[in-house]
Design brief:
By secondary structure, the chain is of the alpha/beta class. Helices cover about 45% and strands about 15% of the residues. The longest helix has 26 residues, at about 190-215.
Length: about 220
């Protein structure tokens, strides 16, 4: 079973890289498996978390878990197997979370002192590719764990590879840009922090646009 799971995981990574054609850029940051991180990104496709996870080096990937919607990833045996057995995802109940088991508590309990997380502060996928306003989850997570290192990520063109409403991806080129680390500052207000985090991704988008101009 272990060998089958390892082979399935390798296949999943290979398919993710094949369909996304992702070029990976670490801008003013680098991979680091010595600390717990929260990788947060813009969200336009169901492929987003998988592409980020696949872009990480092996030692980091094995200690990084994507945060995903339980109603989507727990629907059907294939998605359930991928999310739980291959990706070790942290599944969040979006519709009826209990007071004793809030999404923030689930994330903190699941990451313990070992795992990093991949999450999308917009909450849902953007329909037109623009970066929406951030919900408060990232802030409340950092209030509970201010030691977490935050890495902004900009994903380019994944919305065209697997658009909203489509089930089969169309192979295209994309880019994953990991930005410089940031932290929640002492006594920083929620609105200020969320704006700063959102602007970190928008800055990476501007960097991506300069790369596109260079490619032309």
């Amino acid at each position: 079973m272990k060998l089958f799971r390892a082979a399935a995981k390798k296949s999943l990574i290979g398919l993710s890289r094949l369909f996304s054609g992702a070029t990976v850029l670490w801008y003013e940051s680098q991979p680091d498996d010595s600390c717990q991180r929260v990788y947060f990104a813009n969200h336009t496709s169901h492929l987003d978390a998988l592409v980020i996870w696949s872009a990480l080096p092996y030692s980091i990937r094995e200690k990084t878990r994507m945060v995903a919607a339980q109603d989507y990833w727990d629907a059907g045996p294939i998605r359930r197997y991928i999310s739980k057995k291959l990706l070790n995802a942290v599944l969040i109940e979006r519709e009826n979370p209990s007071i004793k088991n809030t999404p923030i508590k689930v994330m903190i309990d699941e990451m313990q002192d070992e795992f990093s997380l991949i999450l999308f502060p917009e909450g849902g996928r953007s329909q037109d590719g623009t970066l929406g306003e951030f919900k408060s989850g990232l802030y409340h997570l950092c209030k509970k764990r201010p030691d977490l290192e935050l890495i902004p990520i900009y994903l380019n063109n994944l919305n065209n590879i697997l658009p909203r409403g489509k089930t089969l991806p169309v192979p295209m080129l994309s880019r994953v840009i990991f930005g410089p680390p940031m932290w929640l500052e002492m006594d920083e207000r929620k609105e200020s922090f969320l704006n700063r985090a959102r602007n970190a991704i928008l800055k990476l988008k501007q960097i991506e646009e300069t790369y596109e101009e260079t490619d032309i």
